[in-house]
Specification:
alpha/beta; seven-stranded mixed beta sheet; 5 helices
Protein backbone atom coordinates (compact mmCIF):
# COMPACT_ATOMS: atom_id res chain seq x y z
CA UNK A 1 0.00 0.00 0.00
CA UNK A 2 1.22 3.50 -0.75
CA UNK A 3 -0.05 7.03 -0.78
CA UNK A 4 1.48 10.34 -1.82
CA UNK A 5 1.39 13.24 0.63
CA UNK A 6 2.98 16.61 -0.18
CA UNK A 7 5.09 14.95 -2.91
CA UNK A 8 6.38 12.20 -0.61
CA UNK A 9 5.42 8.56 -1.04
CA UNK A 10 4.38 6.83 2.19
CA UNK A 11 4.71 3.11 1.56
CA UNK A 12 3.85 -0.01 3.55
CA UNK A 13 5.15 -3.47 2.77
CA UNK A 14 5.66 -6.80 4.44
CA UNK A 15 9.27 -7.88 4.27
CA UNK A 16 12.79 -7.88 5.62
CA UNK A 17 14.13 -4.41 6.37
CA UNK A 18 17.73 -5.58 5.93
CA UNK A 19 17.02 -6.00 2.19
CA UNK A 20 15.74 -2.45 1.70
CA UNK A 21 17.53 -0.28 -0.83
CA UNK A 22 16.46 3.02 0.69
CA UNK A 23 19.20 5.51 1.60
CA UNK A 24 18.58 4.82 5.30
CA UNK A 25 17.05 1.99 7.27
CA UNK A 26 16.00 2.50 10.86
CA UNK A 27 16.98 0.03 13.55
CA UNK A 28 14.75 -0.54 16.58
CA UNK A 29 17.76 -0.28 18.89
CA UNK A 30 18.34 -0.56 22.62
CA UNK A 31 19.78 2.36 24.58
CA UNK A 32 23.19 0.70 24.88
CA UNK A 33 23.39 0.30 21.07
CA UNK A 34 24.59 -3.19 21.89
CA UNK A 35 22.77 -5.19 19.25
CA UNK A 36 20.19 -7.70 20.34
CA UNK A 37 17.36 -9.77 18.96
CA UNK A 38 14.64 -9.06 16.42
CA UNK A 39 15.21 -6.22 13.96
CA UNK A 40 18.27 -5.04 15.89
CA UNK A 41 20.06 -8.38 15.66
CA UNK A 42 19.09 -8.87 12.00
CA UNK A 43 20.49 -5.45 11.01
CA UNK A 44 23.76 -6.03 12.86
CA UNK A 45 24.16 -9.51 11.33
CA UNK A 46 23.40 -8.34 7.80
CA UNK A 47 25.39 -5.11 8.05
CA UNK A 48 28.54 -6.62 9.51
CA UNK A 49 30.97 -5.38 12.17
CA UNK A 50 31.32 -1.81 10.87
CA UNK A 51 27.92 -0.90 12.33
CA UNK A 52 28.82 -2.20 15.80
CA UNK A 53 32.20 -0.43 15.68
CA UNK A 54 30.44 2.91 15.17
CA UNK A 55 27.83 2.08 17.81
CA UNK A 56 30.62 1.44 20.33
CA UNK A 57 32.19 4.81 19.53
CA UNK A 58 28.84 6.55 20.05
CA UNK A 59 28.38 4.65 23.31
CA UNK A 60 24.63 4.84 23.81
CA UNK A 61 21.40 6.60 22.95
CA UNK A 62 18.63 7.65 25.34
CA UNK A 63 15.10 6.34 24.89
CA UNK A 64 13.19 8.56 22.48
CA UNK A 65 16.36 9.54 20.59
CA UNK A 66 18.19 8.39 17.48
CA UNK A 67 21.76 8.26 16.19
CA UNK A 68 23.23 7.39 12.79
CA UNK A 69 25.94 4.97 11.66
CA UNK A 70 27.18 3.53 8.41
CA UNK A 71 25.09 0.91 6.68
CA UNK A 72 28.08 -1.44 6.54
CA UNK A 73 27.33 -4.28 4.12
CA UNK A 74 23.65 -3.33 3.78
CA UNK A 75 22.25 -1.84 0.58
CA UNK A 76 21.21 1.18 2.66
CA UNK A 77 24.05 3.68 3.03
CA UNK A 78 23.16 4.50 6.64
CA UNK A 79 21.43 3.01 9.67
CA UNK A 80 19.57 5.20 12.12
CA UNK A 81 19.39 3.54 15.54
CA UNK A 82 16.15 4.74 17.15
CA UNK A 83 15.42 3.80 20.75
CA UNK A 84 11.74 3.38 21.44
CA UNK A 85 10.23 2.92 24.88
CA UNK A 86 9.57 -0.31 26.68
CA UNK A 87 5.78 -0.38 27.01
CA UNK A 88 4.43 -0.46 30.55
CA UNK A 89 0.85 0.80 30.36
CA UNK A 90 0.93 3.85 28.08
CA UNK A 91 0.93 6.20 31.09
CA UNK A 92 4.71 6.56 31.50
CA UNK A 93 5.48 8.89 28.57
CA UNK A 94 5.60 5.94 26.15
CA UNK A 95 3.62 7.75 23.40
CA UNK A 96 5.81 10.86 23.62
CA UNK A 97 9.01 8.78 23.61
CA UNK A 98 7.89 6.71 20.63
CA UNK A 99 6.95 9.82 18.66
CA UNK A 100 10.30 11.36 19.56
CA UNK A 101 12.18 8.30 18.26
CA UNK A 102 10.39 8.54 14.90
CA UNK A 103 10.70 12.33 14.66
CA UNK A 104 14.41 12.22 15.58
CA UNK A 105 15.01 9.64 12.87
CA UNK A 106 13.26 11.76 10.26
CA UNK A 107 15.24 14.84 11.30
CA UNK A 108 18.53 12.93 10.98
CA UNK A 109 17.54 11.75 7.50
CA UNK A 110 16.75 15.29 6.37
CA UNK A 111 19.97 16.64 7.90
CA UNK A 112 21.89 13.98 5.93
CA UNK A 113 20.17 15.17 2.76
CA UNK A 114 18.88 11.77 1.68
CA UNK A 115 15.64 11.05 -0.14
CA UNK A 116 14.44 7.76 1.32
CA UNK A 117 14.10 6.05 4.69
CA UNK A 118 12.63 2.72 5.81
CA UNK A 119 11.25 2.08 9.29
CA UNK A 120 10.37 -1.07 11.18
CA UNK A 121 7.55 -0.96 13.72
CA UNK A 122 9.61 0.45 16.60
CA UNK A 123 8.97 -0.92 20.12
CA UNK A 124 6.29 -3.44 19.09
CA UNK A 125 8.43 -6.56 19.35
CA UNK A 126 10.32 -7.35 22.55
CA UNK A 127 9.43 -3.93 23.99
CA UNK A 128 5.74 -4.87 23.98
CA UNK A 129 4.13 -1.72 22.55
CA UNK A 130 0.65 -2.60 21.20
CA UNK A 131 0.87 -2.49 17.40
CA UNK A 132 -2.40 -0.60 16.97
CA UNK A 133 -1.33 2.25 19.25
CA UNK A 134 2.24 2.26 17.90
CA UNK A 135 1.05 2.41 14.27
CA UNK A 136 -1.05 5.51 15.01
CA UNK A 137 1.94 7.27 16.56
CA UNK A 138 4.36 6.17 13.82
CA UNK A 139 2.14 7.09 10.89
CA UNK A 140 0.83 10.34 12.42
CA UNK A 141 4.39 11.45 13.13
CA UNK A 142 5.49 10.70 9.57
CA UNK A 143 2.45 12.39 8.02
CA UNK A 144 2.93 15.49 10.19
CA UNK A 145 6.67 15.61 9.44
CA UNK A 146 6.19 15.26 5.69
CA UNK A 147 3.53 17.98 5.78
CA UNK A 148 5.76 20.33 7.78
CA UNK A 149 8.89 19.60 5.71
CA UNK A 150 7.61 19.60 2.13
CA UNK A 151 10.11 18.24 -0.38
CA UNK A 152 12.53 16.99 2.26
CA UNK A 153 11.92 13.27 1.67
CA UNK A 154 10.78 11.39 -1.43
CA UNK A 155 9.97 8.07 0.23
CA UNK A 156 9.12 6.96 3.76
CA UNK A 157 8.56 3.22 3.89
CA UNK A 158 7.38 1.02 6.74
CA UNK A 159 8.66 -2.54 6.42
CA UNK A 160 6.45 -4.78 8.54
CA UNK A 161 7.57 -8.25 9.54
CA UNK A 162 4.20 -10.00 9.72
CA UNK A 163 0.87 -10.04 7.91
CA UNK A 164 -1.01 -8.96 11.07
CA UNK A 165 1.31 -5.94 11.55
CA UNK A 166 0.93 -5.02 7.88
CA UNK A 167 -2.85 -5.21 8.26
CA UNK A 168 -2.85 -2.93 11.31
CA UNK A 169 -0.59 -0.36 9.63
CA UNK A 170 -2.73 -0.45 6.44
CA UNK A 171 -5.93 0.17 8.38
CA UNK A 172 -4.29 2.95 10.38
CA UNK A 173 -2.89 4.68 7.30
CA UNK A 174 -6.30 4.55 5.60
CA UNK A 175 -8.02 5.98 8.69
CA UNK A 176 -5.50 8.83 8.94
CA UNK A 177 -5.68 9.83 5.28
CA UNK A 178 -9.33 9.38 4.29
Amino acid sequence: MEIIIEGATISLLKGDITLEETDIIVNAANSRLAGGGGVDGAIHRAGGPAIMEECRKIGGCPTGSAVMTTGGKLSARFVIHAVGPIYKDGLHNEPMLLESAYRGSLKLAVQKGVGSIAFPSISTGAYGYPVDAASKIALSTVLDFVGDNKGSLDLVRFVLFSDPDYGVYSRTLRSLTE
